[in-house]
Amino acid sequence: MTKVVVAMSGGVDSSVAAALLKQEGYEVVGMMLRLWSEPGKEDSNRCCTPDAMGLARRVAAKLDIPFYVVDAKDVFHKTVVEYFLDGYARGETPNPCLICNRQIRWEFLLNHALALSADFMATGHYVRKQEAGDKHQLLRAVDRAKDQSYVLHVLNQEKLNRALFPVGDYTKPEIRKIAESFGLPTASRHDSQDLCFLAGDDYRNFLQRNAAEMLKPGKITRRDGEVIGEHNGLANYTIGQRKGLGVSSAVPLYILGKDATSNTVIVGTQDELGSHELIAKDVNWISGEAPNESFRAEVKIRYTAKEAGALVMPLEDGQVKVQFDAPQRDVTAGQAAVFYQGDVLLGGGLIQ
Amino acid sequence: MNQIYLDYAATTPVDPRVLDAMMPHFSVSFGNPSSVHRYGQQAEAAIESARETVASSLNCRADEIVFTSCGSESDNLALRGAALAMREKTGAYRIVTSKAEHHAVSKTAEQLERYFGFEVKWLDLDEFGMVQPQNVERALDDKTALVSVMYANNEIGTINPIGEIAEVCHRHGVLFHSDAVQAAAYLPVDVQSLGVDLLSIGGHKFYGPKGVGVLFVRKGTPLIPSQTGGGQENNLRAGTQNVPYIVGLAEALRLTVEEREQRIAHVKPLRDQIIGAVLETIPDSRLTGRMESRLPNHASFAFKDVDGNLLLTLLDAASFACSSGSACKTGNPEPSEVMDAIGLSREWGLGSLRITLGKDSSSNDIKEFLKTLPSLVEKARELAKDKRG
């Protein structure tokens, strides 16, 4: 029998993933990662609270599949949390979910699944996999509103070869219905958002508690260097932000950029906002092969951003230049730029 | 794939003969032993007969047997009951116990210290997890109310010299309790030759049902009940008795005493085979506890640089059900107190594995297990490298 490990979180999506695979006749094993929590916040960490673990266990019992918890506290802290803190220290806005998917879920957990002699690992991500010739393609989910392909642009052929995404073919309401029809206790659990280790708190409070030394006050300037105010630490600000700058001005001012070397926040008016292009580094191509020529694509620059038409130009050293048809407001270093053609995700990299 | 159960120290299946003895007491002979009518009389007769059986297995009087809901409750009643009674009687306020006790004892002692004004002295163990009688003697003074030392350790199988410790206690006029929950399945539990004042056992460790235990209370031992209410169990444990389970425990204990030699003869060679093979084939492995003075069905190891919890996961996926001192279903492994107490460092203490055998363990099971284990330890070591990040 084909064996599949399902990465379970106690949420409805991974629960249904397990249920669907079991129904299809796979030998299913449930696994859950015990991730790092801030000391004292173990009960509110979003995805591995005792509560979530209890739910996952009940789902596993209902489906009559074995269920195991794997300790990933140290490795999660060393890779994901430190990456998050380092990113802010560099003046970027890091996306730790990307690193988690690459290093924790699809590396650490996948290795555990393979050690259990699994043929595949499945997650509850809204995304699809398709075969095209001898390659695997990564496709957007049927439910565009739920599509999570953005955070999975870090996968490669080797990992896709082991991956199953059973919920990507359904809409979220359909998934809830399926959960109900299986009688899963997670059917009506609300969706998870935010970063798991923030435990529902604002990231600024987290930085204050865990890396207060990076929150150094500095100047707020216009593009020409005119100082118009003071900020309380670069990490507290995001590109495009308008509220909470604490400077008075006749016209609304927006954050245009952050300069980590001079510890400066640069602001300007709405029409100064927006970039025509960006450079992305460490680009991962799902096919495993970098294209030689420029190509047209729809590019997504944040998990929640709308795609924008652009020309993608491969450069040296795994970098690409993206030239947008129209200027983009929130181009933010540390987030990923992900390239699509229709439903197919071609690849993506980190915005510099 | 057939599942192979190697965790008989965690619990055992109910013996079919025990189940047969229990069945009539659920819905046919269902009375309340405290009732006046014949239904009640029948139920009372059943538990009194069970009491006789248990008393004869322990070599004591029937009125020295208190039925409880489990081994942990027996430990709780013994410690809390005797500590409070002794303090009232003599003013003694010290409890002496070891660093490797079951939590039913250690957490009760901690609570007595924190909320009830007692003082706890924790006895060190030798490197094999044994409590030395001379250590006990040194810990005693005229303010000591009670000593509690387990008969055999659940994690590492070490058997303590209970008779000698009892002698020391009595020389100093101190009460002595022993948790015999793990021991009762294989060791003689003759309370006269052991010399204990209080002794706990639980039904499910020797093919009886879960949810029932016994506390032996030597005649004249002062004890204040933990659970108050009706006058059941000689006023020491209120609550309507769980008749079918009490009957089951008695029958299981009777069979255990009767068949003890055969059961030992069955498991001991298999255990020795496991210990020999593991130490020989797996690098960086060691036996926890020792070869002598060890429960005959018990093999326990520590593997360096292994997450014991992960090893259990790998073993279960390969169809072998075992246990580990650091096991934790929530993915938060810590070395157990016992691993600390026998002086294992963290890199060894996290990688403990316990294999405990029973009536249904076959030499074929063990062969399969020994064939599989070395590669799984290797896999766990590989994955542990990822884990450190």
Major sheet characteristics of chain B: 7 strands, mixed
Average pLDDT level of chain B: 96
CATH topology of the largest domain in chain A: Rossmann fold
> Helicity range of the residues of chain B?
40-55%
Q: What is the number of strand segments of chain B?
A: 12
Order the strands across the largest sheet of chain B as they lie in space.
Answer: 2-8-7-6-5-3-4
CATH superfamily of the largest domain in chain A: HUPs
What is the string of helix and strand elements of chain B?
EHHHEHEHEHEHEHEEHHEEHEHHEH
Compute the separation of the termini of chain A in Å: 46 Å
Name the CATH homologous superfamily of the largest domain in chain B: Type I PLP-dependent aspartate aminotransferase-like (Major domain)
Q: State the CATH architecture of the largest domain in chain B.
A: 3-Layer(aba) Sandwich
**Percent helix of chain A:** 10-25%
CATH C-level class of the largest domain in chain B: Alpha Beta
* Percent range for β-strand residues of chain B: 5-15%
Which residues of chain B sit in consecutive blocks of at least 5 with pLDDT less than 50? none
Q: What is the total number of structural domains of chain A?
A: 3
Helix/strand structural class of chain A = alpha/beta
Strand order of the largest sheet of chain A: 12-15-14-13-16-17
For the termini of chain B, the CA-CA separation is: 34 Å
